[in-house]
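Sorry, any thoughts here?
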Amino acid sequence: MKSLWNDEAAAVYRNDDLGMRVYSSRLLGADKNLVMHGGGNTSVKATIEDFFGRAIKVLYIKGSGWDLETIEKAGFPAIKLQETQMLAELETLSDTDMTQQLRALMLDPSAPSPSVEAILHAILPAKFIDHTHTDAIVTLSNNPQGARILEEVFPDCLVLPYVMPGFILSRQVNGAIKRDDPRHYKGIILQHHGVFTFSDEAKIAYGNMIELVSRAEAYIAENGETRVATAENKFDLLNLARIRNAVSLVRGEAQLGILDRSPSAQGYSALGTVSEISSRGPITPDHVIRTKRIPVIIGANPAKGVPEIQQYAIDYTKYFEENHTAQLQMLDPAPRVGIWRNAGSIAFGSSLKECNIISDIAKHTRHAVQIGESIGGWQALSAEDIFALEYWVLEQAKLGQNTAPKKPHQGKVAIVSGAYSGIGNATCEALAAEGAVVVGLDINPEVVSQLGCDGMLGLECDLTNSNAIAVAVDHVISLYGGLDIVVCNAGVFKAGERIEDHTECTWSETLDINLTATQRLMTAAIPYLKWGIDPSILIVGSRNYAAPGPGAAAYSVSKAGITQLARVAALELAANGIRVNIVHPDAVFDTALWTEETLARSAARYDISVEEYKTKNLLGKTITAANVGRLLSTMASDVFTATTGAQIPIDGGNDRVI
C-alpha cells in the first residue's frame, strides 16, 4: 500500500479543516483496495459560526450518495457535535429515529443526509476520522482464525467483533472506548467490516491507514498466495444473450449483461471449487445491496431457459422466507453477478454505471476469496447477518438515492446504422435519452468520436461488407450481453439521373447501401434479437416508396424494396416476438442527403423558393431529424408493443401519398 500524501499539495489546506478533509478523503478514494463505489466514511470536527454568529462545534461527515474519490466540500454536511455524541448514550435508538435526529442536527437542511456512521465518528476523540473497507484487512477477518490473526497483526489496534452498522455499532464502540482510551491505539479493526484510523492531524490518520493495510498485505504475502488463477477460453455469444434474457425475465425488466472475460475472471470461473467458494458470501456485508449475497453459477453450455437462473430465483425466495420479518417485502430474486463456467464473470444491471460497480466488486471479491483460501480459508458472515444488512432500511434508502426513475429503454441495447449524422445520429440520441445503450454504425470513422459519450458508442463499419457487419454485431453482444433494438437507417440519395441516364454505379451503390445492407444487418442481428427483451426492428423508408419522383429511380426502388423486406420480416419474426415496423420520412432537410444544390433543384421543379419547399406539406410543418429519431424511439418502446408490420409516415401529410 503506497502513501499518496503530498506535503506541498496538502499545505494549501493548512488553515482549512474542511479542505484538508476533502484532500485526504480523495487520497483514500483513489485506491480501490481501500474503498469502492460510495464505500468508506471520513469526517472532521471543527468549530464554526451558526446563523446567529455563535461558535458551535460540528462534525463534518461524508454525506450519503457521495464517493470519496470525487467528494467536494458540499459532500460533507455539518451536524451539531455535542448532540450527536449524546445519541450514543441512549439505550435504544431505532433506525428511523436515528435518521430523523441526525437530519434534525444538520445546520443546512438542504445538505445530503449524514452517514449512518455519524454517531461513531462523533464519539471518537480525534479531529480526523478515516474509515475504509480495505480488502486486505477484511480478507484476514474473513478467516476461520480471523480474531487470532487480527490480534497478532494489529497489537496496537482495538479489535472488535462484527455487529450491525449504525447505532448498534456506535454503542459497541462507545462502550469499548470508555473501557480503553482509543488514543492509545493506531486504529480500530471491526471484524468483517473494516478499519478506523484517527488523529488530530489528517496526515497521521491517513498514514496510519496506509500502515495498517500494508501490515495486512505483508501478512498475506508471507502466509498465502497473492497470485490468482488465470485462463483464456472461448465462449458462445449466443449463450451470453440467452443468459442475459433469462436474468431479465426473472427481474421483470431488461438488464445489461456485462461480461468480464479477463484472464483472472476466466481463471476464477474455471476453478473446480468455484461453485463452493464463491457462494459463501460477500467480502463485506455492505456489498450485498449491489451484488446480492451470492452469485449465480452458470454451466459452460447453459441449457435452454438457463435453469440455473430459475433455480437461483427459487433459492433466493427461500432465503428470504427463512430470514424475513412480517413487515418486509421481498426484493426481486434475480442475480446481480453470474459466474459463467470457463467464460468469466457477468454483471447484470439496468445501466452501465450499475454494471461497472458490480463488475468492480466482483473482481475484488474473487481476488479476496482466492487469497483468503490460501491463508487458511474464506469464511464470510452468516446468511442471517447478510440478510439483516440487505434488508436494512438505511441501506435500502442509500441504494434508492442512487437509483433514477426507470426510462422506457432502461437496460436495453440498440444498434443504429448510418449513425454519424442526420436521422441516424438523432435516433441514437433519442434512444440513449430514454435509457438504452446505443451503438451507432457508420462508414465514416468520425462516428467513433461523434458518439463517444452519454451511453452511446460509435463503431466504424462498412455496411456493404457482410463480414464487417457480423463482426460489429458480435462486438456489441460481447460488450453488453444482448440486443433488443435495431434501427436500419443507412442510406444514400443520388437524384437527378433519369433511368436512361442511370450509371451502373448509381444503381448498384444505391441498392447495395439502401436495400442489401439492411438485409445484411437484419441477418446478422436476428439470432440475437430472438433473445432480446421486447425486441424490435425499425426500418427508415421514404415517402418515395409510395410517391416516387422523376430522377430518383434507384432511390425509390430501394426504399420500396426495404418496405417489402420489412413486411416479410414482420411475418417471419412475429412468432419470436420481434416487432418489425417502418417509418417513411419526407423532407427532412437537416440530413446529409439534402445538399443546398439538391434543395435548390427540387424547389425549382415546383417553381417555389427553398423555404417554401421545406414546408410543402399539408400541415406546413418543418420536419427535423430529431422528430424522426423520437418517433423511432417511441416505436421501439412498449407504446407500440402490439404493433408490427406497420408503415408510419412522418412527412407533414403528403397529398400524393394520402
About this structure: The chain has a mean pLDDT of 94.
